[in-house]
Design goal:
This protein has twelve helices and no strands. It is mainly alpha-helical. α6 packs across α7. The longest helix is centred in the middle third of the chain and has 50 residues. This is Type II secretion system F family protein.
Length: about 325
């Protein structure tokens, strides 16, 4: 009777595992069809922003009174908080630079970040007070409850910078992976006789399927090259927004080519090779780090299953004796 019960349980586990495997396979295969493609929306946003730059500059040159600005209007409640607390962030401040590196531009994101940085600790403290003192009724000393409340307030204070830094890291990873390919396309465009503005515009259109973030940055650089009085500033803005050494090296080459009239093709060829080598080196480092990282999952997940597969037939044979 026990053997039959063990056999039935084993069959049930096998059937359940097979069902889970089939469901997982179906989800993996069908998942790309449910993920929304943001490329079209982001490219449309870049195009719209470039058009706003063009309209603003034309209005300024024509002496119109009505000025058109790219800066998005912040929410009223955030604006009131920032004005009441007399908070401000200059164009050269670290906060503004950090938000630009994360892809947030204009006055709206700056005001929102400054307001949330002040409101989040208060909101988390109030939430923790309600949760600890009213909802849970924790049977702990008062200082322990106050420590929990302070920990929640600290989490609210450090959560916005951590979120922005996480956005910066993801954005830099996407740009770093696609940058060598973008340099190859830029080199081909320049050597075919295109100007730097046309080459950057062409690369931004082609590289969008690989990295939306890089396409956005190149599109903004193209707009700045067309309408900023100092072209060097446009290149420096690209390096500042990305914060990557590979981009800074290319920007230096572009600035030198603009200033001294040096050949741009050879410099781009060298920079493209160096960035490809850096990308390959990074991939090799990640591959070399895989065996130590896989040790714990193999011990925890694979070895028990392997022991079960090896020992279960022996246990069943022993139980039949």
């Amino acid at each position: 009777m026990d053997i039959a019960l063990v056999t039935a349980n084993a069959d049930m586990l096998i059937a359940l595992s097979a069902a889970i495997a089939v469901i997982a396979a179906v989800l993996v295969v069908s998942w790309p069809y449910f993920v929304r493609d943001h490329l079209t929306d982001r490219m449309a946003q870049v195009t719209s922003e470039s058009e706003r730059i063009r309209v603003r500059e034309r209005s300024r040159l024509n002496g119109k009174e009505r000025q058109i600005s790219l800066r998005s209007e912040p929410k009223r409640i955030y604006k009131l908080v920032v004005d009441h607390l007399s908070l401000s962030a200059t164009e050269d401040s670290e906060t503004v630079k950090m938000l630009r590196m994360a892809g947030y531009r204009g006055e709206g994101p700056i005001v929102t970040y400054l307001a949330v940085r002040q409101l989040a600790p208060v909101g988390m403290a109030i939430l923790m007070v309600l949760y600890v003192f009213i909802i849970l009724h924790l049977e702990y000393p008062l200082f322990v409850k106050l420590a929990i409340v302070m920990a929640g307030a600290g989490l609210g204070y450090y959560a916005p910078p951590l979120y922005v830094k996480n956005k910066i890291t993801k954005r830099q990873i996407s740009i770093r992976r696609s940058w060598p390919d973008a340099l190859d396309l830029l080199l081909i465009s320049v050597e075919s006789g295109m100007g730097i503005e046309g080459a950057l515009r062409k690369v931004s259109a082609e590289i969008g399927s690989q990295s939306v973030e890089l396409a956005e940055e190149l599109g903004l650089t193209t707009a700045e090259l067309s309408y900023l009085q100092d072209r060097r500033k446009a290149y420096e803005n690209l390096a500042e927004r990305t914060g990557l050494d590979g981009v800074k090296g290319v920007v230096t080459s572009l600035i030198q080519a603009e200033k001294y009239g040096t050949a741009l093709g050879q410099a781009l060829r060298v920079q493209a090779q160096e960035n490809r080598d850096m990308r390959m080196s990074e991939a090799e480092k990640k591959a070399a780090a895989l065996p130590p990282k896989l040790t714990v999952p193999m011990i925890v997940f694979f070895l028990p299953v392997l022991f079960a597969v090896i020992l279960t037939p022996a246990i069943i044979q022993i139980m039949k004796l």
